[in-house]
Amino acid sequence: MLLNNYTSIRQNFEAIDRKLYQLSPESYKVSMDGCGLFGYTNLVDPKKIIDVGISEQLACQVLFGLSISNDTKVYLSGMSSFILRRSYEQLKLYINNEVPNVTIIGYGSGVSYGALGPSHHIEEDLALLKLLDNIKVYVPHSIQSFEKKLIHNLDEKFPVYFRIPNELPNNLLLHGKYLEENVDEDITLYKKPEISKKLIIVTGFLTQSIIDKFKEESGIDVMSIEVLKKLNIIKLLLNSYLEIEIIQDARSDTGIIPLILEQLDTTKKITIKGFDKHKTGANLSEMLKINNLI
Hints:
Blueprint: E1 6-8, H1 9-23, E2 28-31, E3 49-51, H2 56-70, E4 74-79, H3 80-86, H4 88-96, E5 102-107, H5 125-130, E6 136-138, H6 143-152, E7 160-164, E8 167-169, E9 179-184, E10 187-191, E11 198-203, H7 206-213, E12 220-225, E13 227-228, H8 235-238, E14 243-247, H9 256-261, E15 269-273, H10 284-290
Parallel strand pairs: 2-3, 2-4, 4-5, 5-7, 6-7, 11-12, 11-14, 14-15
Antiparallel strand pairs: 1-8, 6-13, 9-10, 10-12
């Protein structure tokens, strides 16, 4: 774990899934190899869960087929590296091109699997997802945010992908000095009481680690972005800072980084941190440290 505040997605998902079932009992869930998130839950109607085994391409085809034949939202959960690498053609043809009402939960994103190595890491996931421009990508920063966005997603009738690590913070700890300010529903600014000259921009689970790292330093604000989309809304806010640092647990040429850079005044001091040189560590915390992300 990175912090004591981080908790396993699998241990918390059953309660979330039960809420989804209560709100949308007609929805189907597709799982892979018996280890998808839905395989760990005990729904009232187990016939709504379909496990396709070690067959990621088939999983995407079943996902699409169930969606168009049942007029309901269908979910798929599985490891990010396997979903995106092994079934990318199906994601493009069936999900991105046909735009069905489906939600994919890719867990173990980035380098969450630590010592399991390159076969389980996928630091290029945001680069692959960027090419699938009809799929909306969420990057929640906590268990509570993940649940909130999943429930909100019930009303979204287009493809959505949730980029989830193995662990997420159980509520963000703001350590007193940080004040929370909602820029919009997917962007949150954590401000210090004094006027800050530097802004650190992060995605997803890294939010907690960065807030914790700079909790005692004055003049540094933190912005958490939980969706990949055009960011024109924050252009004026970004340019009110003298220094910008952008951190993400993925390649630095994709994800939020180019979206932020196109909004910035080029005279600013800009620092970018991402996984450009792959170094494997014993666990996620070590991976982030040796790659200079935390």
